[in-house]
């Protein structure tokens, strides 16, 4: 049974303000909770329907009805279980020997989540975001990662400072007038792939940190590629040998 | 001024049933209407605020208020103008000498729209979808294409029949156990890239039409890539020489 205060609490976490205040976030659905349970994230509470509890009887949780689940879910089709977990401070790991993704002012949660999933596929450990990027603990971001959220380090920082501190890295900047990536072997060690905002591209003040301007050749008429799509193609180009 | 029946009509087109019945669909926003006006699509009506009309005074349209725009928009942030256009019957063009994308039961409108945008970027003329795929005239599909919708032929058909009729084509099937695409030069003429449903993959009855099982190497731990992401990487692999 879900108390009124629990309902209020979980629903409040849909807003960044309250997530930051409580240092918590929400995870939904069978697959995502399975990944959460395997991760290092500390779980505060799990709300689940009887069907989920039957299959996970060793997990400590609060039984709720389908109707109660609906009242706290952000999904169109709620999926048996919702958890509240503690946010964690991520640290960048081995940037000097890894491929890192840098996101400048990314705004769309679906795009961000898809990029995290792509990073996990390509074994990319770190994503560094400008401080004005969308919150990674936004439920749409988390759901779009399909579980990859728990395996990639996401760090918010001042990108100017990040690039200044890591001036020995090769920085690939995705620009429409960059060098054809099909004619260039991109590296995947000690490199950063810098992607700009969905509509405005890379900020002026970050352009000077780019060591290699790169571009995905265009054969048709679209003005640009979706940012998650472009990031994926460029990650693939870095990883293909 | 927006009449009650106009409001009712535009809102009804959010549902596939009414779109099919009226053979119409809705397009929103400055950029999209600009692309619509340049396309071959027949426009039934345009509803616009005074700010849009000021910049487009040669276009025939009905002036509405911001509030009226809000009452018929599907967007969180309505953008000056909404049009109703007639659906068109698309025809596949030059399949035997082109790269075609085949989508089996694609469900997510955002993914579908992103794939259409990617197709337009890579100069892919045709997308063929199974009949149970999401409706291309869904407003979320149209908006995610960022204007590419008007430049790509989208045809719904029985994919079994399509592959039977086009048995001379090379069919790349994206499968987790396929051949490493980095070690294989994919072709972009007389080829079809077959992508499966977001959660279920390629249908059993279509597997036999695949001539080349292909796969994007995995370096990390994600179970799969987003379908729009995977499609983009594979299109890029076909187009890179």
Task: Give a written overview of the molecule.
- Chain A is 34% helix and 22% strand.
- Chain A has helices at residues 4-12, 16-22, 30-38, 50-55, 66-72, 109-121, 139-144, 159-165, 204-207, 227-239; strands at residues 24-28, 43-48, 62-63, 81-86, 99-103, 126-130, 153-157, 170-180, 191-195, 212-215.
- A 6-stranded parallel beta sheet of chain A has the order 7-6-5-9-8-10. In chain A, strands 1-4-2-3 form a 4-stranded mixed beta sheet.
- The longest helix of chain A has 13 residues, at 109-121.
- The relative contact order of chain A is 0.15.
- The model of chain A has no long low-confidence stretch (mean pLDDT 96).
- The A-B interface holds A 110, 114, 117-124, 144, 146-148, 151, 182, 216-226, 228-229, 232-233, 236-237, 239-241 and B 110, 114, 117-124, 144, 146-148, 151, 182, 216-226, 228-229, 232-233, 236-237, 239-241.
Topology:
Two copies of one chain form a homodimer.
Chain A: H1 4-12, H2 16-22, E1 24-28, H3 30-38, E2 43-48, H4 50-55, E3 62-63, H5 66-72, E4 81-86, E5 99-103, H6 109-121, E6 126-130, H7 139-144, E7 153-157, H8 159-165, E8 170-180, E9 191-195, H9 204-207, E10 212-215, H10 227-239
Parallel strand pairs in A: 2-3, 5-6, 5-9, 6-7, 8-9, 8-10
Antiparallel strand pairs in A: 1-4, 2-4
Secondary-structure element pattern of chain A, one letter each: HHEHEHEHEEHEHEHEEHEH
* Mean pLDDT over the residues of chain A: 96
Structural domain count of chain A: 2
Largest sheet of chain A: 6 strands, parallel
Briefly, what CATH class of the largest domain in chain A?
A: Alpha Beta
Oligomer: homodimer
Helical percentage of chain A:
25-40%
Q: How many helices of chain A in DSSP terms?
A: 10
CATH architecture of the largest domain in chain A: 3-Layer(aba) Sandwich
Structural class of chain A: alpha/beta
- The tally of strands of chain A reads 10
Q: Supply the CATH superfamily name of the largest domain in chain A.
A: SPOUT methyltransferase, trefoil knot domain
Spatial strand sequence of the major β-sheet of chain A: 7-6-5-9-8-10
- How widely separated are the two ends of chain A? 55 Å
Q: Could you name the ranges of chain A where pLDDT drops below 50 across 5 or more consecutive residues? A: none
CATH topology of the largest domain in chain A: Alpha/beta knot
């Amino acid at each position: 049974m879900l108390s009124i205060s629990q309902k209020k609490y979980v629903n409040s976490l849909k807003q960044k303000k309250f997530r930051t205040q409580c240092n918590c976030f929400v995870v939904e659905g069978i697959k995502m909770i399975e990944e959460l349970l395997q991760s290092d994230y500390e779980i505060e509470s799990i709300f689940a329907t009887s069907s989920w509890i039957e299959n996970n009887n060793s997990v400590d949780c609060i039984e709720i009805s389908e109707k109660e689940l609906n009242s706290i879910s952000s999904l169109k089709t709620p999926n048996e279980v919702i958890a509240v977990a503690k946010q964690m401070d991520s640290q960048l790991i081995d940037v000097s020997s890894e491929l890192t993704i840098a996101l400048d002012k990314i705004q769309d949660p679906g795009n961000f989540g898809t990029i995290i999933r792509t990073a996990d596929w390509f074994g990319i450990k770190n994503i560094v975001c400008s401080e004005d990027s969308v919150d990674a603990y936004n439920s749409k971001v988390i759901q779009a990662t399909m579980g990859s959220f728990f395996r990639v380090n996401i760090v918010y920082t001042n990108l100017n400072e990040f690039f200044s501190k890591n001036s020995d890295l090769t920085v690939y900047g995705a620009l429409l007038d960059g060098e054809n990536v099909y004619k260039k072997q991109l590296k995947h060690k000690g490199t950063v792939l810098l992607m700009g905002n969905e509509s405005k591209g890379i900020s002026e003040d970050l352009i000077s940190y780019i060591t290699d301007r790169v571009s995905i050749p265009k054969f048709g008429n679209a003005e640009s590629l979706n940012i998650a799509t472009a990031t994926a193609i460029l990650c693939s180009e870095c990883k293909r040998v």
